[in-house]
Amino acid sequence: MNVPRTRPATRLGALLAAGLLATVLAACSSGGGGGSGDGSYTIGVANFTLSGPYFTGMDKAIAAQAAKKGNVEIVSTDANGDAAKLAANVEDLLSKNVDAVIISGGPLESAPAVLNSLKAAGKPVVLVDRKFASGEYTSWIGPDNEAIGRQNGEFLAGRLPQGGKVAIIKGGPADNSIGLARTNGVKAALTGRPGITLVEAPDFGNWGSDGGLTVMESLLATHPDLAAVFCENDAMCLGAQRAIADAGKAEQIVIAGVDGQNEALKAILDGTNYLVTGLNDADIIGSRGLDRTVEILNGATVEKDTVVDSPRVTKENAAQYFDPNGDF
């Protein structure tokens, strides 16, 4: 069983309340949306990709929350970044007669074949983190990505009162609405600030630390006077931090990321040049996605869309979120 990450009292209380609500609904329900007849459920998890720590953390969090309930079996799949494979995996889950499906869409913008299959089968579908651009779903739980970017931009503006050159490292591909929202939030906060210049990296970091390192190396070659860098996720920023250190510029360039990955939180706690991230916790979203799915199966009326709080994390509060034993 996974060890849950320590949370502030309000956040932990919200999670406990959600779990209690699900328990009460289960006790009051006369059968809800399905199950085997003995009060248990089988829930499919359709992952577009498990290639990054965020998505593996989400998958593990869903399984851990199901294990806590004791009456929920999880069947997890990985499409390895292939939309056709994701559709085939969902068909396979339906052939196993799962009661509902949770979809972690990663960078996939839409999945019409998947959502159409689930609609035709009459199965509830809960989206976690990624909200598809089109198609019908039962419920979505995820962050406000533009707000995360905006709060990072505001932090950098306060850090650079005399101005400076701020680089932006994007994950890709070009139409990824999650990354676009984060970058647009940063731009909204920094555009027009006296002395602030924005520099977008021409290449994508592909959401990984190796990609972040490579893109940062290129940026340093063309813009040696950078004062800060924002990355659309922490993994890329961790790679960028290595490139900055290798170039001997750790005292010059500060770093801002997104997600709250444990390695990033540790870097913030240790007082490095990694100063801020926006919490988009895979553990929280995954566990709440599982809770939401069970609520639906128990017959509850739930919110269509639920935005999960994404607090700004700095050295002052990072200890509240850091868990060396967490999945993400």
Mean pLDDT level: 89
What is the number of strand segments? 12
Summarize the main sheet.
Answer: 6 strands, parallel
Catalogue the unreliable spans.
Answer: 1-33
The backbone outline, from C-alpha atoms, is elongated
| Number of continuous helical runs | 10
User: Which structural class do the helices and strands define?
Assistant: alpha/beta
The side-by-side strand order for the widest beta sheet comes to: 2-1-3-4-5-11
Task: Give a nutshell description of this structure.
Helices cover 43% and strands 18% of the residues. The protein has 328 residues and is of the alpha/beta class.
What does this structure look like?
The protein is α/β, with parallel strands linked by helices. Helices cover 43% and strands 18% of the residues. It contains ten helices and twelve strands. The two termini are 14 Å apart.
Question: How are the SSEs ordered, and which strands pair?
Answer:
Elements: H1 9-28, E1 41-47, H2 53-69, E2 72-78, H3 83-95, E3 100-104, H4 112-121, E4 125-128, E5 139-142, H5 145-159, E6 164-169, H6 177-190, E7 196-200, H7 209-222, E8 228-231, H8 234-246, E9 254-259, H9 262-269, E10 274-279, H10 282-297, E11 305-307, E12 312-313
Parallel strand pairs: 1-2, 1-3, 3-4, 4-5, 5-11, 6-7, 6-8, 8-9, 9-10
Antiparallel strand pairs: 10-12
Helix pairs in contact: 1-10, 2-10, 3-4, 5-6, 7-8
